[in-house]
Every structure is written in C-alpha cells, then in structure tokens.
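Q: Hi! First time doing this. I have a protein sequence and I read that you can turn it into a structure. Is that right? Here it is:
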Amino acid sequence: MAVGLNPPAELLAIDGLRLGTARAGIRKPDRRDLVVLELAEGAETAAVFTRNRFCAAPVHLAREHLAGSAPRYLLINTGNANAGTGQRGARDALRCCQALADQTGVAVNRVLPFSTGVIGEPLPVERLTAGLPAALAALQADGWQEAAEGILTTDTLAKGCSRQIELDGHTITLTGIAKGAGMIRPDMATMLAFIATDCSIGRPLLRRLLRDAADQSFNRITVDGDTSTNDACVLVATGASHCRLDALHPEDVAAFAEALADLCRELAQAIVRDGEGATRFITISVDEASSAAEALDVAYCIAHSPLVKTAFFAGDPNWGRILAAVGRAGVEELDVEGVRISLDDLCLAENGGRAEGYTEEAAAERMRRQDIGIRVALGRGGASETVWTCDFSYEYVRINAEYRT
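A: Yes, that's right. Below is the predicted 3D structure, encoded as structure tokens:
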C-alpha cells in the first residue's frame, strides 16, 4: 500500500564494502533476516542512535564498540529487537558479535550489532549465529538489494538509493538502504539506515556530516509518533576512492553534504511513503515561526493528531482539526488572527476563521491526492521547518493489532 513508492533502482556498489544476507529463521522461515556488512580496513564509521531510554541491548553495545574501535563488520538481524531483555539481552548481543568475530578473525569490539523486530522477547542466538556462515559466504560488493530486503519488518518494499558526484577529479559514490514503516518518530526511527561512500572522511567530519544529514531527514519524519528502542543510522566512509574530503575546499565539502542530505531525505521519505497502511504522503511546512523549535512543535502537533490523520485517510477536508492542532501546539501568545493555513495552494483559514473563497469542493479535490501539502504561516518571525508524515488507515490498526501473530 506504499504511496508513490517503487522498489529501488540500481544500487551502486561501494568499493571497500561487501554485504551478505542469509535466511536464519529468526522469526519467520524462508525470509532474509540476517545481514552482514564487511568494511575494508581503514574505513571510518559514524552513527546516530535512538534517544529512547529503553534503548535496545544492541544499541548500547554498538555505541560502546564504536567509541573504542574502527568497525570491520556490521551485524544486523530482523524479527527480534533484543530490547526490553535486560542483562540477558546484553549478553546475547555480545555472544552474536563474538560469534562473527571468531569466524572472521577480528576483535569482538570491531563488530557493531543492530536488531529490529518484536520488543521484549529473547534473541534466538543459536538461530542467528547458525546463519552467519551463509551470510559470510554470500558477501559481495553488489549485495545492496538483498541487504535492503534482509532488514525489513512490516515494510512492503525495500528502500534504497544511490548518488554520484564529482569532487576534485574523482567520481564519488554514495549508496544507502533503510527500513521502517511503523513505530516511526526518530530522535537522533522501528528505523534502521545504513549508508556508505567511497570517499575518505575523517571521523570528526564524518560525525558532523551524518548528524546534519539526519537532522534534515530522519529527524523530520513521523508515522505514528512512537520513537523506537532500536533506531540507528550509520554512515561508513571506506576511503577507496582516495579522495579525502577533509583536504578539499569548503564548497566541495558542502557539495558532498548536500548529496548525503539528499540521499537521506529520499530514504526518510520512503519510510513515510511505506508507513503501515499509508494511503497519503503529507508534507507539513510551518513558516513565519519565531524559532525552528516553535515551527517543529506546530508541525509535529499536526502530524501526530489522530483526528488529522484519519481525516486525510477519509479524504475529508475537515480543516478545523488542523486549526485545533495549531492552537494546542504550545505557542505562547499566538495571535490567531495572524495565522494562515493552506492545503496545497488553497487557503483554508486566515484572520481567525475560514478563508474567503474557500469551497468544500476545492478542498475535497486536494484531499483526494496521494501527495498533499499542509502549510501553516504563524506570522511571528522568519523560521521555517518541514515534517513528513502519512495518514492513519484501518490497515494501520490491523497491522499493529496482529503484529505478534
């Protein structure tokens, strides 16, 4: 039921990185559910993680390992989140890392674990580790498509994209994959993203580039307002192109940053377009705010309103629900006379009430579109922010009611 989303086009290989997948039967038989990424020696890695206080055991361990070493392997499983599993979960995550380390001859702290799936159930370590030989045997540079399929949970489509740019006479490639459809509202969404480039980038710059790109993309999406226990986004720079970004001119760094941000936005929006049961892709832009934080407060209040989201599913131009969300977003001393609310190019409300020229027919036509824009001008300043979300349908309730069955 993905909204305007197609399977990934060609995903370009990244020199210095190989990917392998396996069917380990972690939760369901005969589906790809185990992925290994092998990074060349000398690759740099940065990551951002969930801020959920109940973050999963693999999140804790990945943070710890990343802080103390340069990773050689990423180990990803779907079907089980290994979250809410206490000390056993921590031991299980480490056992899986140790098993991969033993089979590849690296130190255990050079393996970063990532999990996604059901919360609160023990990780089936024996099944996972039994699948490692097959995943390692399948390692290949062009394994991105299989890896994109191997990290899915309730997603209906794999998500991935590539970019190429010219820097200092070098062709630089970026490729990324992501998963997520529900429990999506990142705080750095259940969301995982893995991005790689053949550019050489020092770790401090790599961290800054990833943080800035995530803030423009994965931290601007929401399906249901639920921040997962397992969210992570990883950026790997293999350095295989021998183009060192740190040594280039600022405009080259800016060009790379924009390519990375553009790739992340495409992946983030694909997550929303594949939101559980989604039938509408909704862009919420808040302008004329006194600060970026204020703009985001308003945008998320609209995006998280079940009444707004169900109205969009029904195609009902009940614009009063949007107006009410703006009014309860916590904007201090908001002058409602100065607020303008539009649906695409149609003004719905201004001067404290329904806009002149508004017609139900015109609004209903816009509500029938798959891609819809809400624009709110607060009339308070020059700050603007944009958030992407989707509607709530009957299917969303069914998927989540039957998630464990």
